[in-house]
Design a protein that fits this description.
Layout: H1 4-7, E1 10-12, H2 24-33, E2 38-41, H3 48-65, E3 68-72, H4 75-80, E4 85-88, H5 95-101, E5 107-112, H6 115-124, E6 128-132, H7 147-156, E7 162-165, H8 173-177, E8 183-186, H9 188-191, H10 196-207
Parallel strand pairs: 1-2, 1-8, 2-3, 3-4, 4-5, 5-6, 6-7, 7-8
Amino acid sequence: MKLLSERLRLYVIPDPIQGRGLSLEEQAGLALEGGATALQLRHKEADSIDLYHEALALRKLCDEYGALFIVDDRLDIALAAGADGVHLGAKDLPVAAARSLAPEGFIIGATARTPETATAAEKAGADYLGVGAVFPTESKKDTRVIGLEGLRKVVCATSLPCVAIGGIRPDNVTEVLSAGVVGVAVIGAVVGACDIPAAAAKFGKVLGPS
């Protein structure tokens, strides 16, 4: 079995807006075809029943490709659909509360922008951290950009595997990796591309084998 750090190498988040009219399931399948090692279901506008069915579809795809499947925000949907884990932001269910409800082996990711939030998430029981935004990003206009130096500070503050997110492209992956992260999370740079498998494969070449 691959280590969690290896499975987080290329973490793709399908998007209903940036996905060029494709469904989340279609985007996910193409990203996996190109080498994505993890997928996150994030669809904030969907109601619970639609989100559940999307989760089932992505769970099946990830099983076919041997990829990690994470649900954003919603622990209930993640558990109901048999996801590998959930990713929790600052305004979601606290990591410690989620850990108390989750079964053994269930993965909990947390968002961190500062060394302090990274340390707190680790103490609360998180398994990995999503760190950013490293660069300005189209997916979240109002997000705070921490830059490469901010990324390094977070990575140095924790023993958890860290995934960088925010404005990451093939041409800046190398400098992002130099900060000590195990992988990158991408949205538009993959699912917004005309050729999603090729875009994912281009990241894979820079990131190296998982």
